[in-house]
What we know:
It is built from 6 helices and 7 strands. It is α/β, with parallel strands linked by helices and 191 residues long. A 5-stranded parallel β-sheet has the order 2-1-3-6-7, with helices on both faces. Strands 4-5 form a two-stranded antiparallel sheet. It is globular.
Amino acid sequence: MKKFLIINGHPDSESLCFELARRYKAGAEKAGKNCELINLCELEFSPILKHGYRQRTDWEPDLIKAWQAIKTADHLVFVYPTWWGTQPALLKGFIERVFLPGFAFGYRKDSVWWDKLLKGKSARLIVTMDTPTWYYRLIYKQPGHNAMEKGVLNFCGVKPVRKTVFSPVKGSATIKREKWLAKVEDLGKRD
């Protein structure tokens, strides 16, 4: 049975992202999938990579547990809002602390190439934003999507990466949000 890991990167427990993550999990579980949900705002860790890659910062117990969940998952689901064109600081800090050389990828000695240590996993990005999707794509060139898909997940070997975007959130009616929640629950069943 495939193991799913949902990582919710929104810091507010009353956000639409929290409900999207719960509904995706509910759909996946209805389909009989083994599914775990991590809300990053409930973890205790410093989001700062204090020494860059020069010296490893020891993981807090919550990051050790999160890494074990990532390592054993077949399918990763990231749920987060787009703020200032990309991910919230909480999610960015989590990625910087956990997706490290020797864990998510490996540098090769005297080479420009690297080993992708998360091969065999797939992912879905569930992203909310206030910017209309067409504007984000054409004007901004999707920096947050590109960073997550290409700069993090593909770099570490995760493929394919599918994206589901709900936009614009600001001013959206309750009926619209209910449709989004139903869609994400269906995605949980089908992924």
